[in-house]
Amino acid sequence: MTLIPNQGRWGYCLAGQETQFIHHLDIAIASASGLPFRYLEIGLGDAGTFRSIIAYLRILQIPFEARAVDIPSHPIEIQQSGGNWIVESHNVGSESFLVAAAAEGWQPNFTFIDACHGAPCVTRDFLGVEKIAADNAVVAFHDISPEAQGQHFQPHCQTGINARAAVEQLGLLRDLRPGWETLAETAGTPTSFGCLYVHKI
Ligand SMILES: C[S@@+](CC[C@H](N)C(=O)[O-])C[C@H]1O[C@@H](n2cnc3c(N)ncnc32)[C@H](O)[C@@H]1O
Ligand SMILES: [Zn+2]
Question: pTM value?
Fold first, then answer.
């Protein structure tokens, strides 16, 4: 079993769910049809999760490209590289990022959707990711657990968290969306809300 870096200290409310998150990352790594492995995080925040994922991928010593996107005014920027890995953050907003990634042909093997949690934004982010996701890609959605809904005001959408409505409407919550298989819904912990994991088939 591989050591999980920074366990208990991952960013923004994911603490306590590291094992589940890494388990689904491992599924994406095992089912990726080629390398480098491509990780995408939509909503960088304080980069706690992003940095932990980079550390994990470096432990595995596989070639990888990790990108994160946040809004243009976001204060954190990350650019790092090593022999067979490259890490970049793009503060351009998810919509522009996903259009550019599609034009470039950049196809993520794993995407963590964790930006604005209003239903329109979660839906838009997924539809953008769906266009570019690699074969057998995994997508994780944060804050889909029932107790999270309506919590934490989302300034962009001017609502509370409404990610569950988005994944329900997309047919992802109940395994109804063609081309996608619902893998798992993880319960939250006392300090974090749960995630939904889906797999492109
Ligand atoms: C909950 S935080 C992300 C936490 C991070 N994923 C982690 O686990 O450490 C949400 C972030 O999404 C960003 N965000 C909001 N709207 C966005 C958009 N349209 N595109 C990209 N990022 C966005 C916010 O600025 C904020 O930094
Ligand atoms: Zn929004």
Answer: 0.96
